[in-house]
Amino acid sequence: MATRQRGRPRSFDRDTALEKALRTFWEHGYETTSIADLTRAMGIAAPSLYAAFGDKKTLFEEVVEVYVHRYGGFIGRALAEEPTARGAVGRVLREAAVEYTEPGRPPGCLVINAAVNAAPASAEVAEALRAMREENVRAFASRIRAGVAAGELPEDTDVSALARFTAAVLQGMSQQARDGAGRGELEAVADAAMRAWPGA
Amino acid sequence: MATRQRGRPRSFDRDTALEKALRTFWEHGYETTSIADLTRAMGIAAPSLYAAFGDKKTLFEEVVEVYVHRYGGFIGRALAEEPTARGAVGRVLREAAVEYTEPGRPPGCLVINAAVNAAPASAEVAEALRAMREENVRAFASRIRAGVAAGELPEDTDVSALARFTAAVLQGMSQQARDGAGRGELEAVADAAMRAWPGA
DNA sequence: CGCTTTCTTGAGCGAGCGCTATAGAATCGG
DNA sequence: CCGATTCTATAGCGCTCGCTCAAGAAAGCG
User: Coiled-coil ranges per the record (chains A, B) (predicted)?
Assistant: First the structure.
């Protein structure tokens, strides 16, 4: 069919505007980004924003979806592609040092930092990000457990402790990045963390 | 002298009200705590708050001062009292696991978590907390450097990397605590972190 | 008892919040 | 061209924000 669109066409590019919103939320967080901040960054007026993206919470949810796909994929790739658990987690941390300090982007991780301070009205958003962080812990644990099963790591390895430690380091690196730490400093943190692994 | 106070006496206890404000800021953060939240928690009306504590930013500064003295002292004590750098940092992390999950308190650390998401209007407050975190990194580095000088740690120890790693773990532990991690889980993170030390 | 001083209370300021009603502009099918 | 449709732009809704004015209450001093 390809029935042509009726009515007045949209005067802005939806993906471009969404990316602008993403950057704004990434830099300032969910609650501290106002609709006025968004419309300014996106170059559109409020009614256009609401027509194209729904309300603030819905827009943020779409932003998170895009963020995870476009900027958070390195974690899943490292865990899936590296042959050893140690290599996988080491690559996650070292790549995080790069990702979190990439020039031309807000520093740190949106999922980690965008809803740390949330009023009760934003509890759902904060909880959604918290669940994603918890899911990361589970992914680390799953990969480490596979490493134990494969004989790569000792049988008595405390899998969940190592997974939670990895997540804590990642979160610490993200805040350090926001506090101004550079790529080299974060890489040193990542290397230090890997020395905590069994048989280092 | 002891000139008695003239005029109507204050109807609330200043220290008690300040502690209530401290808990509220600790739990919800600087920007996401409103004056209405504070007056409700402190049990006083807005003009009384402003007369006794100044504006919101000034009140927060006093809250931070009390917080550091009352709840943040364990870091300085551990660094000063332990005979070795390794023992000092290990004690900081293990005590943090306890402090950050103490029942009857908001989880995590106010200095680490209260101003992660800050609008430009609160930039000064966010920067003040950032400076305190940076000061912590320097304190860790100083103690570790002393350990190297004392021959406790190898000459080629990367002092600033180990210091920044410690700070990152501490910050990660604080966020994990806010995300619901228990004392035991955080202690496991602390123990894991200490295995990253030279000669572990 | 006044008089002064200090605090409390209630009301409300201007500004910004998330969000939307309304009217006009731009494109379609016919 | 006409009407239907879908977007944009202005303006403003009710609400909350940080903060303060004005009036009254409670204390000490003479």
Answer: none
